[in-house]
Amino acid sequence: MIDLRSDTVTKPSAAMRRAMFEAEVGDDVYGEDPTINKLERRAAEILGREAAVFVPTGTMGNTICVKLHTHHGEEVICESRAHILDYELSMTAWFSGCLVRSVHAEDGILRWPAIRESIRPFARNSAPTALIEIENTHNIAGGRVTPVETVREICREAHALGLKVHLDGARIFNAATYLRVSAREVADEADTVMFCLSKGLGAPAGSMVVGRSDDIQRARLYRKRLGGGMRQAGILAAAGLIALEEMPARLHEDHANARFLACGLAELPGIAIDPTAVQTNIILFDVSGTGLTGPEFSARLKAQGVLINSINARTMRALTHCDVTRADCEQALDVLRAVALSGAGAQPAAASQAAL
To answer: Do 280 and 255 form a contact (C-beta atoms < 8 A)?
Structure first.
């Protein structure tokens, strides 16, 4: 199977497996796992923060960060398709007791003027805004990248109003690769940052939360409350260190493969996509012109050895990653072409493109 469902499906490399086998471990809840301690120090150094904590998942990391910066009954501003809103089981409400106030950005990039209009002060009849959350890259906006200066403006303006900023940087190294800057620059002035080791970086599990030392000390308590005290998890951290040190340098390959897929998809009948909108490793494309729904299209692909998920009745999402080669992409396009042609409503590619 050629698996383009997500970059979470990657398998640990041979070097990661060796490192996991040889990892020195201890009890992390006691702060005694030397491999986790090394990973946390290195993550903080790379992102230019005082401290870091290793957590099992990105969802847990985001949940912890929202809790760090808010109190019950406050509001969190994010983009209308943000991961914390649609894919984290309402943890902002369940764990932090906060309401999400979403702001729609057509391209997925939150900008300060739109945020400013949605900020609520403490008042008799409204809950005050406490936190602004940015997602970079933006998953359901097709892996779109928020520019460094846009993040900096949001942080500076928010801080001037006494508000905090959290960066969901699950794929922050993809953003850094696209912008040709360091991950530290992408995160720059955000109060906390979460990033995943288990997506484009290829580790088997784990995410990092970085920030000020006092915030990270409290983050450890929230991690324990959420069941994230993993004890001898240096076995996972050993793979995470290789992911952090070695894998960002190859992310441009995934981006190139994503652009290759997007250009190929643009030539298929009944499929609508703008290849120029593909910036990183995420491709969104509309299959409604084929006469098939997203789930139907996905099922036909699977029957021919390609895994791509639909995100709604019209739209498919494909992700390139370290376990997908250019040859895999070429083979996947052959299958995509066959499935597109099998739909009763397939239209010529030119008509599909004109609809964009």
So the answer is: yes
In a domain, 353, yes or no: no
C-alpha span between 328 and 333 (Å, rounded): 9
Which run of H or of E encompasses 150?
Answer: helix 148-160
In a domain, 194, yes or no: yes
Domain shared by 243 and 259, yes or no: no
Residue stretches of the chain with pLDDT short of 70: 344-356
- Whether the CB-CB separation of 224 and 247 falls below 8 Å is answered with no
- Torsion sign, CA atoms 180, 329, 138, 278: positive
Residue type, 116: R
The domain that contains 136 carries what CATH number?
Answer: 3.40.640.10
What's the predicted TM-score (pTM) here? 0.93
Instruction: Classify residue 2: in a domain, yes or no.
Output: no
* Spatial distance between the Cα atoms of 171 and 139, rounded to a whole number of angstroms: 9
User: pLDDT tens, 203-245?
Assistant: 999 999 999 999 999 999 999 999 999 999 999 999 999 999 9
Show the domain range for 255.
250-347
Residue 311 belongs to a domain:
yes
Burial class (CB in 10 A: 0-12, 13-18, 19+), 268: buried
Tokens 């992102």 locate to: 47
For 90, other C-beta atoms within 10 Å of its C-beta total 11
Last residue of one domain, picked from the residues 213, 247, 281: 247
Are residue 217 and residue 90 in the same domain, yes or no?
yes
Q: Indicate the SS3 state at residue 311.
A: coil
Tokens of 318: 């494909």
